[in-house]
Each structure stands twice: as C-alpha cells, then as structure tokens.
Amino acid sequence: MRGRDSEWETVHGLLTKTGDGRAGVLLVNAETGMGRSLLLAKAAAEAEVRGFAVTGRSVTGLGRLAPLEPLVSAFQDIGASPAIAYTAAASERLLPAIEELRALLTERSAERPVLVWLDDVHDADPATLLALKMLLAQLAAAPVGWILARQITAERTTEADLLFEQLRNEGARSIELRPLDHEATVQLTRDVLRAEPDQEVLRTAAQTGGNPLLLVELLEGLLEEEAIVIEDGQARLIWNVVPMRVRTTVQRRLDELKPDTRRLIEVAAILGLCFSAEDLAELLDRTPVELLPTIQEAMAEGVLIETSTAACFRHEIVWQTIVQMIPMTVRQAVHRQIGEFLLERGELTAAAAEHLIAGASRGDARALSRLDRAAAQALPSSPSTALHLIERALQLTDRRDADWLTRTATAVETLTLTGNLEKAESMVNAALAEPVPMPTGARLRIATATILHLRGRAAEAQAQAVDALAAADLPADMREQAEVALLLALTATPDQRTAAQRASEILGKPERSGDATLIAARILLAVSHWGKGDLQEALGLAREAVGEAVLGSVQARRTHPRLALASMLTDARRLEEAQDLLRSAEQERSSLDHHAWAAGTSALQARIHLAGGRLLDAATEAAGALRLAGESGADLFVPTALSVLATAALRTGDMNAVADQMERFAARLAEGQSVPDTLRCTIALAQYEEARAAPGGSPALLARLRMSHDQCRRLLVTAPETAAWLVRVLVANGAGPQADDVVAIVSDLAGRNPRFAFLTSAAAHARGVRRKDAALLDEAARSPDPWSRASALEDCGVALEDSGARADAVQRFDQALELYQRHGAVRDAARVRSRLREIGVRRRHWSRRARPETGWASLTESEQKIAELAAQGLTNRQIAERLFLSVHTIAFHLRHVFRKLEVGSRVELTRLSLERGRPG
C-alpha cells in the first residue's frame, strides 16, 4: 500500500460511514497491476475487524456468459443460493432474481453492516450491471457499503464505464490508483529488497513507470537471477537484465492479444519506446487507416498510450522485454530496414542513427557505407550524432580496410567539434604515425591544426595547417578548411604583422575564397588592428564578419566571430552590447553542437562580469569555464578564466586563491603554450607578486613587467585598468623611464581613439598618477569601469592629501571606499580605510546587513531573484537568459538557495514560495 495513503483514507471513510448505518459507494479505477486486488483485500480485512459481514468476488471473463453469476457467487458467503443464477437465465425471471438478492442484503444488513466488493467490473455481464444499478438505488438507506473496481483502458467505452459515470454523477466517491510517485517507488523497492537500493537499482525500478505489479515482479526476478547483490544493507545492481518473471508476465499479456495486434506491437517495439504511426505504417507496408483497429486494441489493453506527438509504450520495462523477446537476427534486419527508410527520407535524427547502428554488423560493407553516409549527413548540424555513427563504423572496420583511415578522420573531426580534444589528438597522432595517402593525410593534418589551436598551441597548429596547404592537388573544400585553421591559429601568434598581411591578401581577392575563409581573415585582421590600437577599424571588421556569418555556411558560423566582437566590446566596456552578442553566440554554439567552444563563451561571460564589477559572478563563471575546458581539453580558454579568477581574488583579498591560479598559469607558461590572454595573466601574476613584495622595490617584479612596446600597447587595449597600476609600480620601483613609456603608449591610444571613453579615462589615470595631478585623476574617475573609477578616486585622494587638501582627500577616499565595497573589492576597501586612518579618519568596516544562515532572509538579492524565477517554473537556461547570466552561474546560485532553504527539489522550492506569498 505504499503511496496509497489518500486512497486508503477514502476507504476508511466509506467503512466509517457504513458502520454508522448509512449506505456508501466507492468506485475504484486502475490500470492493470496498480494494486486493485490488494486494496480490496485490505478493505475486506479492515471491514471484518470492524464487525462487518463481508462478501465479494472478482469478475472473470466468463462472467459475461451467465446473468448475475458474479453477484450470485459473491453473495454465497452471506447465504445466496446458486439457483438464483439459473433462475435469472430466463429473461422474464431476471427481476425476481434481483429482488431475491435485494431481500438477502436487506436481511443481512439488519443484523450488522455489510461490505460488498466486486473487482473487474469491466468484465461483468449486462444483467449484473443492471442488478448493481437497481440494488444500489433500492438499498440507499441500508448500512451496505459497496466497493466496485474496474480496469480503465485508453480507447474503449463499456457498459461498466457508463455505469461508473452514472454512479459518480449520483454522488458515489471515486478514486484512481495512479502510478506510484518516486518516493513511493523508492519505499516499495526498499520493502522488496529489504535493503537500501543504489542509483542503478532505482533507475531500473523507474522503468516500471510506477506500476506496483511490474515493480515487484522486476525486483524479485532480479533477486532470483542474482542480478542484484545485497551487502551491508546496500542493494547493488551488477547487471541489467529483464528477469524471467517479467518476461513471463509480458508474454502472458501478449498472448491475450489478437495476432495482428501482437505483430504490430513487436514491430513498434523495434521502432522505439515512442514512434509515429506513419513510420509504423511504412515499415509494415500498410496505411495508417489500416493500422487503426490494431493500434486502438493495443491502447485499449493498456500496452500503448497516446501522447501529443506519438504513440508510446506505457511502461519502459514492457517495451524492453518485448524487444528482447524478438530474435536478434530479426531485430537487426528490422533496425536496418528502419534506418534505411529514415535515411532515404532525409530524417537523420538521433533515433535514425540508433537504428542504423543497431542494424550494422562486422563485414557488412553496405551497412558500413550507410553509416559513413549518415555520419557525413549529420556532421554539419549534429556532430554528436555523427560521432555516434562513425565510432560504431570504426568498431566494425578492420584496421587493414581501406576505409579505416577515412573513418578515423571523420571520427577525429567529430570528436573535435563535440569537445573531446584529448581523445581526438591521441587518435590523429596514432593515424599519422605511419604514412597516410592523400588527401586523407591532409584532412588529418587540418584536423590536427584545429585541435592544437583549441589546446592553446598556436605555433604547432600553424605548422600543421601550412603542411596541409602545401599538399599537391588539395581539394577545394579541404583547402578552405586548412586556410581557416591557419587563420584562426594566427590570431594567437605574437607576429601579428605577418598574420595581418596574409589576411589582407585573402580579403583583397575575395572571389578566390569561401565564406568561412573570408570571415576568419576578417577576424584575424580585426584582432591585429585591435592589438595595434586601431579600434574603430577593428570593430568594423569584426561586425562585418558577424554579419557575413549570420547567413553563411556551417563552417563559417563555426568560426564564432561574435565571440571576437564581444571580447573587443568587453575591452571597451560596452558591456550591454557585448552581453547581447554573447547570448546569441552561445545559442548558435549550442545549436551547432560545438561543445569545444563552450569554455570560450563561459570564459568571456566571466570577463563581462568582472568588467561590470560583479566579482562573485565573475569567479563562479570563470570556475565553470575551467571545468568545461578540463572536460573538453580546450586549453585555449584557460588563461582567460585564470586571469579573471586571479583578478577577482586579488580584489577580494583571497591571496591563497590567487596563488593557486597563478601556479596553474605558470605551469602553462612552462609548457610553452602561446595564448591571447597570456598578457592579462602575466599582469595578474605581477600584481600578486607586488602584493607580497616587501617595501623598497623588487627586481624580480621589474623583470616580470619588462615587455616590448607592442606587448604593452596590446595589454593596455585589452586591460586598460592596468595602465595606472603599471605607472604606480614602476615609479615605486625606480623605473621612471619605463613608467613614462607606459604613459606615452596609453596617451597615444587615447588620442587615436577619442570616441572610446575607457582609453581616455585610462590615459588620464596614468598621467595623473605620474604627475600626481588631482584634476587628471578626477577626470579619470569618469571611467565606464566601476573598479577603475574607484581606483582613480583613491589615487586622487592620495594626490590631494600630498598637496595638503585634507578635506577633499577624505571626500575622494570615501567615494572610493563606497565603490570598492559596493562591488565586493574587500582588499581595496581595506587599503582605503587604512589611508583614512593614517590621516585620522576612522570608517567602520562596511558589510551587508546581518543575515541568518537559513530561510528566505538568508538569501542574497541575486539568490532571491533566481529562487523566485525557479519557483515560477523557469528552467536554468530561461533564468539565465532573463537575468543575463550563464547557466553555470544560475546552477551555482540555486545550489546555495536549496541549501539555505533546506529543500531538495524545485517542487519544494515552489511550495515554500507559495506559502511565503500567503497572508499570515
């Protein structure tokens, strides 16, 4: 009776009502196996304990053959004569027979309450149904309780259904034994196993769809066949098999069906758990109209159900059992047939791929050729489907086969796109260890270049792409792929002059190149111009690349120009536009199934958060980016994430966290990886060393900050907030000429780009620090970057204090303190409080209002917003889009929400939210 508390309460109510001298009727509706018999047995036992006269029977299929037979059999327990049934066999004696039964019940109920139960009423004959209708009406004032149970089906209306509907309209109580919920399924699983089930056992139990009969049969069968072992009170599934108990139950159910219906169900099972009537009709070479009667019978018998889009097997375990009962050779042939017609129809879904895979076997050249064709068809839109297909083809291909290398190349390409770069690199290296004929050799080198670029090894990537381009008679499509791989790798090269020259040559003759090559060239040229400080021109090129990619080929869109443009806009602190671009970039990346770049969008999101002063969100997103990079092997994006984590940790004063990130970065430098964000990481490392350095200068720090003019310019464009810090540190360490060079470079950038406020402010800040000019520092405090505004105000306070303007200095320090505290820059705020103390002004440590550790009041503002949206039913992705955060950030906050509210699911969260909204 697990999960039947409310139903059992209804039974109790009926027995109490009848025991008090009033008639009552309870209608029980349930599918097969939902526990009707158990409920009736417990009700009868409870009634006997209460002193009832109890009688009842289960109607069998033969009940239709003899009028009143079910009632007469049931009433024999309280004195009915079997002769009544024979009397009722003559139609003119039916009413007298019913009257005799009424009299019997009247007599017995005068002595004590009576409970009459009748199961399987759907099989009752018309005379029995008529008698029930009459008896219920005639005994409405007698202490007789009735429990009538029937099996409900999907597509059939019987006389019993009409009777139940009428009784419901006349006031009868009705319950439906629905499938067990998750909690009840877990409890019943524990009951049967007498142990705590592991997750695999629970997943297997869930395949019964909450049907108690199937669940018990499954678990007891698994125990009998030793598929479950119990040790120390823990039940563990050691292999997943449909036990003979379940097979026998399903076999018995199939044997009761008509031959045509059974055949339809068996073929449908090979199609899948859910299937379309059109596919089934095509497979059986029938029209959907011709299949209608058999489908309706299968639904009426509860084997199939109808959803809004397809027909499905009601219980997954039944579906699995039917599939396993079909001979393997037959299954394989049908899978092959299904895969072929779906492929011919042009519907290469994941399901179609599964059929093709299931229908293939070693040595079957035709089947393997179909897998090749399907993988090529899936590769542009669904690399994960293509990977599934090609990996199976490779498993069935002998290494000596001429097609093995071609299939290996496809596998490498799909692994790269889906984000398994380590496996892809290992596979391609093994393939290239021996001579490879062209053009497959060039194809493998192009794939290698793409892998190495994403792994942050730009020089190696360039070498592989150049080797591929040097191949004679390279097909046009491969030449374009090689050129794109080279151009993307060149975006990370220190020699931007050579890279820009190649991009310019390509753009100068656009008719010679495909759209992907032209877009990659524009991205490369935009990156080059951005690094040189030609910002307007860079943005123009990047916008052109984005515009061309919108309607471009799949290969063109996989160059991800939106990310390049969003990165530049983030540098320029045009964060709203950058966020919009990133959102659309992530949607496109997801639609292209290009998981290898997932860490890139996440790392850029972290940068946007950092630039907006949202340190916690920035750190959370950066940690997510590192996790994604670790899963995929996309080391290209790791320095971006590390630089964000280190900068956020520096501002919050978590020096241990900074040390951890910088140690990881130093290890990558030792590996010789060249990546775009190396400069940002290098500055974060220098800032960490400066924070730890003793007063009086640090030669090691000066050595760290030694960089070329080009490197400095690129750094100040991509991290303008570092200009003032560089000047301050260089002056403090006796490197005045070097500090002047920084001022000159940032001033030149600002002069050449007057429309970019972030550079104007950065230049004013650097000059103000070098000259100790409060007016310039006040000008710098108009920066679009909140942390830079606070830093400029702090430096302004220092300059004013040095000039003796104490009151003005205090004002600037207070403004800086408020900004630092608002954005969580704890370490910077502590430094400003120290400055204020030195001039005799004490400020209390700013903190948020004290919050309890649990409950709604413990949630931060961000957590409250996210909790409210989750309680409204929005998914993590929908919440992310609504709040301009990433899915990883939402998941991070929701974990804290669940912990603080002490809930374990969204259902509980919704309940708490509703209760909170009610007036107290």
Automatic annotation (TrEMBL):
Listed GO biological process terms: regulation of DNA-templated transcription
Keywords from the named record: ATP-binding, Coiled coil, Nucleotide-binding
Coiled coil feature spans: 568-595
GO cellular component: cytoplasm
Database matches in Pfam families: AAA_16 (PF13191), GerE (PF00196)
Recorded superkingdom: Bacteria
Ranges of residues in domain HTH luxR-type: 852-917
Keyword Nucleotide-binding: yes
Single annotated GO MF: DNA binding
Gene3D superfamilies listed in its UniProt record: Tetratricopeptide repeat domain (1.25.40.10), Winged helix-like DNA-binding domain superfamily/Winged helix DNA-binding domain (1.10.10.10)
PANTHER family named among the record's database cross-references: TESTICULAR SOLUBLE ADENYLYL CYCLASE, TRANSCRIPTIONAL ACTIVATOR DOMAIN
Protein's UniProt name: HTH luxR-type domain-containing protein
Organism of origin: Actinomadura macrotermitis
Phylogenetic classification of the source organism: Bacteria, Bacillati, Actinomycetota, Actinomycetes, Streptosporangiales
